[in-house]
Each structure stands twice: as structure tokens, then as C-alpha cells.
């Protein structure tokens, strides 16, 4: 059985790590490289960081931030935000990213995931899905949003993840907006539905408030990995504490010591 991954997420705005609730009301959480080093030392399996205003502002992710982080930590890095073209993807990979996460651009150019997977390989192409539970005509729909959660697309989540897999995405990050930053638990129903519908890894995002929430999304939600921010950024739990909790409950996690890179 493959080890479940624990992945801290750094939402980056104007060069600083921030954390909001349901994509808004952001609170400063520190400097990017310092956060990355702390999570490396705690035993994070990977690190994801998103430039959360890049797509909305129509600009590229700050490459300098990525380069600095990649020079100082060993763990795999996934980056997203403002990535619109194959050239953008190449620049991110050449600047130290192991995976590139694509959300808004995948909706605006619905052949981009396929082209990117063919050019760079599925293993480094992540389809990020900002999913929202919305009511239309007295019925609930799971709808894909873009531009940092600001713009509804009319696309249904289940249709979109199926297309992403068919186009060659190697992984899906499912961020349920209704749960994001609430620390009230992941959306287990939606995560399980997506996990059952696709044959590629699903990373659950949005709502972690305690180790029990992570346990639930890795078991009931059937996720391959759990992404979290608030509980780690503000010192509520360390990654090691979460992994210990999971291991004690029979969930296979990876323990790996990494030596720091020279500054």
C-alpha cells in the first residue's frame, strides 16, 4: 500500500504566505522560504505553493520565489498561479518545480492539459480544481470556479476531473471552496466521489482543522494525500504530530530525514 502524503500549502500573495477563509480575508503567515524550511524539517512529503492573485491579476507567478525555495529544500515542489502557456510551464520546471498545477488556464484553454502532458509528461502536470457547492433551480451542483475562486464556470466538477484524467493529468488537487480555511473538516462526500471516479491520485484540500480531519479524508474520502495550511502555519500542529497520529491509527505514512541544503 502506497504511503499517504501530507502536504502543506503556501498561498502566496505579494511575496508573503497568507491564509484566508473560503479564499478571502487573508492573514499573513510568514515568509516563503522560512515556511518551506520549517516544513522540510518537520518531514513534509511535498510542498505546494500557489500565487493566489496571479491568475486574477493576469500575471505570471514570481519565479524568484520558486528558485529560492528550490535551492533551499529537498522535498518536491508543486507550483501554480498565473500559469497560462506551455512556455510558462517550462519556465516553472526549469526554475525548480517538480510539478505544475493548472487551474484557470485549463478552463480557458481546454486543450492545455493534453498538450502539457504530451510535452512534459503526465507526472508533472496537476489539474487543480476549485470546487464549490452551489444551488441552481433548487438543486445543488458541484461547480468549478477559476480566477482564485472569483469566477464560476458552469462546469460540473465530475465532468471536469474526468476530462482532466483523459487529457493526461497525472494528479488532481481538489480544493472545496466551501470548506477552505474553515478548519471544520474536508468535504468527504465530494472527495470520495472524485477519488472513485478517477484512477489518478487525488489530493484533498480545504478544511483541515485537526489530525482527525486528515485521517477522515484519507480513509472515508479515499484521498491519496491531504493538503493543509491553517493548522500548520499558525503552529496548531506540526507535520510530525499529524503523521504520528495517522500511524497510530494504521495509516501508512512516510518518515524520511532530509539534510538541509547549503544556503
Oligomer: single chain
Radius of gyration: 17 Å
Count of helices?
Answer: 11
Distance from N terminus to C terminus (CA atoms, Å) equals 36 Å
Strand order of the largest sheet: 1-4-5-6-7-10-11-12
Order of helices and strands: EEEHEHHEHEHHEEEHEHEHEHH
Q: What fraction of the residues are assigned to beta strands by DSSP?
A: 25-35%
Give the overall average pLDDT.
Answer: 86
Globally, the shape reads globular
Specify the biggest β-sheet. Answer: 8 strands, parallel, barrel
Structural class: alpha/beta
Low-confidence stretches: 19-27, 259-263
Number of strands: 12
Helix content: 25-40%
What does this protein look like?
The chain is an alpha/beta fold and 263 residues long. Helix content is 35%, strand content 29%. The protein has helices spanning 32-42, 54-57, 63-72, 86-94, 104-108, 112-120, 157-167, 188-197, 211-219, 230-233, 239-248, and strands spanning 5-13, 16-21, 24-31, 47-51, 77-80, 99-102, 125-136, 139-146, 151-156, 171-176, 202-205, 225-228. Strands 1-4-5-6-7-10-11-12 form an eight-stranded parallel β-barrel, surrounded by seven helices. A hairpin with a 2-residue loop joins β2 and β3. The longest helix is centred in the first third of the chain and has 11 residues, at 32-42. It is globular, with a radius of gyration of 17 Å.
Any descriptors?
alpha/beta; 11 helices; 263 residues; 35% helix; 29% strand; disordered C terminus
Q: Helices, strands, pairings?
A:
Blueprint (H helix, E strand, L loop, with lengths): L4 E9 L2 E6 L2 E8 H11 L4 E5 L2 H4 L5 H10 L4 E4 L5 H9 L4 E4 L1 H5 L3 H9 L4 E12 L2 E8 L4 E6 H11 L3 E6 L11 H10 L4 E4 L5 H9 L5 E4 L1 H4 L5 H10 L15
Parallel strand pairs: 1-4, 1-12, 4-5, 5-6, 6-7, 7-10, 10-11, 11-12
Antiparallel strand pairs: 1-2, 2-3, 7-8, 8-9
Amino acid at each position: 500500500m502506497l504511503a499517504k502524503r501530507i502536504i502543506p500549502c503556501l498561498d502566496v500573495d505579494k511575496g508573503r504566505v497568507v491564509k484566508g477563509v473560503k479564499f478571502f480575508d487573508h492573514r499573513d503567515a510568514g515568509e516563503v522560504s522560512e515556511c518551506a524550511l520549517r516544513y522540510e524539517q518537520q518531514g513534509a512529503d511535498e510542498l505546494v505553493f500557489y500565487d493566489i492573485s496571479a491568475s486574477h491579476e493576469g500575471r505570471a507567478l514570481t519565479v524568484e520565489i520558486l528558485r529560492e525555495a528550490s535551492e533551499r529544500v529537498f522535498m518536491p515542489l508543486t507550483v501554480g498561479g498565473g500559469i497560462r502557456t506551455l512556455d510558462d510551464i517550462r519556465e516553472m520546471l526549469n526554475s525548480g518545480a517538480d510539478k505544475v498545477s493548472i487551474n484557470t488556464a485549463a478552463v480557458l484553454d481546454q486543450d492545455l492539459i493534453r498538450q502539457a502532458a504530451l510535452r512534459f509528461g503526465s507526472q508533472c502536470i496537476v489539474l487543480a480544481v476549485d470546487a464549490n457547492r452551489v444551488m441552481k433551480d433548487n438543486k445543488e451542483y458541484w461547480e468549478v470556479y477559476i480566477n482564485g475562486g472569483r469566477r464560476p464556470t458552469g462546469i460540473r466538477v465530475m465532468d471536469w476531473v474526468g476530462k482532466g484524467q483523459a487529457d493526461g493529468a497525472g494528479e488532481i488537487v481538489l480544493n472545496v471552496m466551501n470548506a477552505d480555511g474553515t478548519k471544520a473538516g474536508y468535504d468527504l462526500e465530494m472527495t470520495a466521489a472524485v477519488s472513485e471516479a478517477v484512477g489518478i491520485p487525488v489530493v484533498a484540500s480545504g478544511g483541515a482543522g485537526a489530525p482527525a480531519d486528515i485521517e477522515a479524508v484519507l480513509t472515508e474520502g479515499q484521498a491519496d494525500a491531504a493538503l493543509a495550511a491553517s493548522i500548520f502555519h499558525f503552529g496548531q500542529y506540526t507535520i510530525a504530530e499529524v503523521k504520528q497520529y495517522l500511524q497510530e491509527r494504521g495509516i501508512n505514512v512516510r518518515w524520511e530525514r532530509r539534510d538541509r541544503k547549503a544556503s
